[in-house]
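User: Can you predict the 3D structure for this chain?
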Amino acid sequence: MFSPLVSELIQALRVLPSVGPKSAQRMALYLLERNRHGGEQLADVLLRAMQQVQHCQDCRTFTEENLCQICANPARERQLLCVVESPADILAIEQSGSYQGLYFVLAGHLSPLDGIGPQELGIPQLLHHIKQHQVQELILATNATVEGEATAHYLRQATQHYGIKVTRIAHGVPLGGELEMVDSHTLARALSQRQRY
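Assistant: Here is the predicted structure, written as structure tokens:
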């Protein structure tokens, strides 16, 4: 029904997460019918990003430079290192405004069935970073999933002989949340990790 190039555009848009055939078709037709300038700008920025964006040599987040803005900032607390699963996690923590240390991005979590082990997550690089930068506290901020917990447990074990403080971010009832709306696993964790008030 569509010309070969339009069909190719629709198929190319399906590479994005959660974009099915109908969504890709709507996007392609919108760009062609109503916003060719926006499509050209998108194509230009996408091409430049694919060619120029790389991983920060220290924390492994995305940047165009050797060091990202956070790692290059001398005002950051270098003795604090927060381990996250993705660059999006850094953004979430930074938006809270409550953390001034550095980060290390695993780019995933341990998943032996998918062939993702310590090497694929850069854990040897993380251990080298801990030694080289004299990290005093390692904050494990992996997701509260089975894989995230397994990854945090592995990191705790791998760093136990370094003599550093290893902490895990708290999980539990969200601020402003109602108990009746919280799932049983989250509520159980919140109860087991309760603190003196």
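Residues 33 and 41 are 15 Å apart (CA to CA). DSSP finds eight helices and six strands in the chain.
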